Structure formats: C-alpha cells, structure tokens
Amino acid sequence: xxxxxxxxxxxxxxxxxxxxxxxxxxxxxxxxxxxxxxxxxxxxxxxxxxxxxxxxxxxxxxxxxxxxxxxxxxxxxxxxxxxxxxxxxxxxxxxxxxxxxxxxxxxxxxxxxxxxxxxxxxxxxxxxxxxxxxxxxxxxxxxxxxxxxxxxxxxxxxxxxxxxxxxxxxxxxxxxxxxxxxxxxxxxxxxxxxxxxxxxxxxxxxxxxxxxxxxxxxxxxxxxxxxxxxxxxx
Length: 234
Ligand code: SF4
Ligand code: SF4
Known about the structure:
There is one protein chain. By secondary structure, the chain is of the alpha+beta class. Among the domains are: 15-49; 67-189, Alpha-Beta Plaits (2-Layer Sandwich), CATH 3.30.70.3270. It has helices at residues 17-21, 23-42, 84-88, 125-129, 155-158, 162-168, 198-205, 224-228, and strands at residues 67-69, 94-100, 108-116, 135-137, 152-153. The longest helix has 20 residues, at 23-42. It is elongated, with a radius of gyration of 31 Å. Bound molecules: iron/sulfur cluster (2 copies). One iron/sulfur cluster binds at residues 88-91, 93-94, 115, 120-126.
C-alpha cells in the first residue's frame, strides 16, 4: 500500500554473548573515558574548551546579544515609540507604552520599553525594523536570572552605557560604516530643537477642522447623546 512502510522485515542486529553480559561493554566505555581524562590532564593547554568566565570568546561584530537603546547627544532616547519593533518581533516580547514628548521635535517617546529576555529569540528583527536607528544589539550574552521578573529588561537596563560597550562591544546593528566600529550619524542625532510650549502654539494656530455635512443615511444620524446635548438641534 502506498505511504505505508513495512518494518516487519527489519531485525535488530543480534547481540554477541559478550555484549549480552553488559559488563565487558561497560568496562570498554569506562576505558574510553579514562583515556580522554589522562590525555586532557597531560595536555591542559591544548584543551578545546575555554575557562569561562575567566576566558571569553571574542564574538563577531554581528553577534546578536543583549539589546541597547541608543541615545541622542542630549542623552534622551532616540526611540520615538513608533511600535515598529514591537510589530516585527516574532516572539512578542517587546512592550512599549508611548508618551507625548515635551519637545515638538519628537512626537512621542517610550514611557515604558520592556524586553522579556526569556522570550526573545535574538533574531535582530527589532533592529532591522527600527526607522530611527534607536535599538542595537551588543555582544553581551551574560544574562542570567533567578526569577521571570528579572528577565524583563526595562529602559534603565536597556539604555546604552559606555561601560557596557567598553566591556562587551557593539553587536548586530543596521549600519557598519568604515571599519564597522563608528556609530552611524543620522538626522535623529541632531541637537534637540527648543520646544518649550511649541506644541501648544501649533495647536492654537492649527487650521480648524472643516465643518462638513454629515450627509444622508441612517449611519449618519445623530446619536442619543448628541441629541440631548445643548447646542444646535439636529
Ligand atoms: S531580537 Fe527578535 S525576538 Fe528579540 S526582541 Fe528583537 S525582534 Fe523580538
Ligand atoms: S522601532 Fe525604533 S523608534 Fe520605533 S519603537 Fe522600536 S526602538 Fe523605538
């Protein structure tokens, strides 16, 4: 019959008498272990393993490790809380809550920006999706937690610090100009524009909304609240 594999004709290899005793095979396995033990003890420097954490491997500049949130020259986060990274994240481990930025140069900023490192698969999609070059990855892979709460990194642990970069170095990021070590310059690195009260001024001076006729049809009929509200009668 097609699609069905007949396994009835397959027989396991017959064990020899010595193999069925088991003890000789156990002794043979222990002999292999002992041979490796002696070889490694006499050739300690030639071991293929490294003595972590005293020794660490030097990973590639494209290593996808812990994320960092990049900052502008004034120290504020470059992130404009556009949610692009959250949308792109296949593990759904980014949580952003947007707030209104006090300076008109930036519409929004992240009041909350959390990454659940236990769910993160370190794919780098968030870095690729960011239009503001605001999230990079580092070569920091030393993330150990005792609780689930510990694994949720908020802004204070994601904000870029010189110490972290000095210790671990940059990892995966969108641009690698020059020798790959110089951070890229873009518009969002320009100085922050003075914005005290500008948002309010723009709102005051904004073009008023055009009054439009609702048009006919049952869906355009005024609601009960609109009918009972004081003002022009419908
Ligand atoms: S690296 Fe991938 S899984 Fe991790 S936060 Fe970014 S998009 Fe999500
Ligand atoms: S995509 Fe970039 S700018 Fe947008 S919310 Fe994510 S980190 Fe912020």
